[in-house]
Write a structure and sequence with these properties.
The chain folds into 2 domains: 1-33 and 46-76 and 299-394, Rossmann fold (3-Layer(aba) Sandwich); 173-293, P-loop containing nucleotide triphosphate hydrolases (Rossmann fold). By secondary structure, it is α/β, with parallel strands linked by helices. The protein has helices spanning 2-7, 48-55, 78-91, 96-145, 148-167, 191-201, 207-220, 237-249, 267-284, 295-298, 319-324, 329-336, 343-348, 356-359, 382-392, and strands at 8-19, 22-33, 37-41, 63-68, 71-75, 174-177, 255-259, 287-292, 304-309, 312-318, 368-373, 376-380. It contains 15 helices and 12 strands. Strand 11 (368-373) and strand 12 form a beta hairpin. The chain is flat and about 80 Å long. Helix 6 crosses helix 7 (207-220). The chain binds adenosine-5'-diphosphate and magnesium ion (MG). Residues 19, 22, 24, 42, 44-50 line the site of adenosine-5'-diphosphate. The site of adenosine-5'-diphosphate (ADP) has 11 residues, from strand 2 and helix 2.
Length: 394
């Protein structure tokens, strides 16, 4: 258990993000291991972008937890509130003994709510304070030993580093690349300003440092120094997406969430951008969540794939396993949509349509996510679980 845990970089636990009555993401759980590419796949509107945006805290999530490197970075409270409401209901008719139990339970849930709020709203600030304290510990003995001019210089350096450290946000370790490179780039900002923006926000003022980082990252994404002074509209779609990649990479993140980074691009350009992301992840040791609306794009370079349908995760497995033994009918329908460059196969390829109402009978029992083989999860009820086991011959 522990060994496995060490590898986990991101843990998403029962994530819910509701927009009024629209359960855009509803009880989604998955882990992303350090260094892997996790593909998140599903048709338009199923909640992929909302999942990504929830992870980087663009929303105050409705319920569930998100942990990054073991630290809780996002937490919602609805599940605790619901538990409290149910307990209060039960209290009305409960025995004295049960009442005491329920009271204790409610107090526990209230503490969960306080803790969730605290982590959700403070983890970033606390991270900055921790780093600032580290800077303080580093400089204190040095400054004490020094005197005169040397001491003055040390104090100046200390103040500068302390101020920057305090501004660091834990969440910048996760960067997102957006689907539409045109909409996500500010047309009034030069490439240089666009890429430097995140550095400036986090307190970097040294022009030389910013220059070096920006030019370095331009080179990394296959652009050149001369591009720095130009505006987004002067670039092609593929180049614009490279700017989007540069903007994320310059922050030196550990994880990148690439939200359909190639969907808006010509097919001929798609492979270039995917290759770039693949190169960068090896070079920089990045962990990637790669979001796509079909399986063909994620097939080759995802280690594991999660399939979403209508706000729910319906199947999750390694790429190889998912392609060898797709179980959920929605996964099968996605697979049947992938064209292959084999004319014989193409002639026989039958697109399977997924219709949840005819595919499942959940009138007697609702489905849950179950592990059918080690690491292979599928959303199903008891009856389906037995059927899938028979199909797998286990
Ligand atoms: N900010 C928002 N406010 C209200 N509804 C939203 C918002 N963002 C997304 N939605 C809704 O949530 C659902 C999931 O959307 P999204 O996460 O963008 O799906 P995907 O990225 O898989 O196409 C859709 O029904 C969408 O209309
Ligand atoms: Mg989307």
């Amino acid at each position: 258990m522990h060994n496995q845990d060490e590898e986990v970089l991101l843990r998403v636990e029962h994530l819910c993000q509701y927009f009024k009555f629209n359960k855009a993401v509803d009880d989604v759980s998955f882990d992303v291991k350090k260094g892997e590419v996790f593909g998140l796949v599903g048709e338009s509107g199923c909640g992929k972008t909302t999942t990504g945006r929830s992870i980087i805290k663009l929303y105050d999530i409705t319920s569930g937890n998100v942990y990054f490197k073991g630290k809780r970075i996002a937490a919602g409270t609805l599940s605790y509130k619901t538990a409290i409401r149910n307990a209060r209901k039960e209290m009305k008719t409960a025995s004295a003994e049960r009442k005491a139990e329920l009271k204790k339970f409610i107090a526990e849930q209230q503490k969960e709510i306080r803790d969730a709020r605290f982590d959700h709203f403070n983890c970033d600030k606390l991270h900055g304070m921790d780093l600032a304290n580290e800077v303080k510990e580093k400089y204190k003995p040095l400054i004490e030993k020094a005197s005169g001019q040397e001491r003055a210089e040390l104090e100046k350096k200390y103040r500068y580093e302390y101020k920057i450290a305090k501004k660091q946000r834990y969440i910048t370790q996760i960067q997102m690349i957006f689907q539409d490179p045109i909409a996500s780039l500010d047309p009034r900002k030069t490439v240089y300003e666009t890429i430097a923006e995140g550095l400036v926000i986090r307190g970097e003022k040294n022009k030389e440092v910013i220059d070096e980082k920006v030019y370095n990252v331009l080179d990394m994404v296959g652009l050149v120094r001369e591009h720095a002074s130009r505006y987004p509209h002067e670039f092609s779609g593929g180049q614009r997406q490279r700017i989007g990649v540069a903007r994320a990479v310059v922050m030196n993140p550990e994880m990148i969430i690439a939200d359909e980074p190639v969907s808006a691009l010509d097919v001929s350009i798609q492979a270039q951008v995917i290759n770039l992301l693949n190169d960068l992840r090896h070079k920089l040791g990045l962990t990637l969540i790669f979001i796509a609306h079909d399986l063909s794009v994620v097939k080759y370079f995802s280690d594991r794939i999660g399939v979403m349908y209508y706000g729910k995760m319906v199947e999750l497995a390694t790429s190889d396993e998912l392609f060898a033994h797709p179980l959920h009918p929605y996964t099968r329908s996605l697979l049947s949509a992938i064209p292959l460059p084999d004319p014989m196969y193409e002639k026989q390829r039958v697109r399977i349509k997924y219709d949840p109402l005819s595919a499942h009978d959940y009138s007697k029992q609702a489905p849950t996510m179950r592990e059918i083989l080690p690491g292979h999860f599928v959303q199903c009820n008891d009856e389906e679980f037995e059927q899938y086991k028979r199909e797998l011959g286990i």
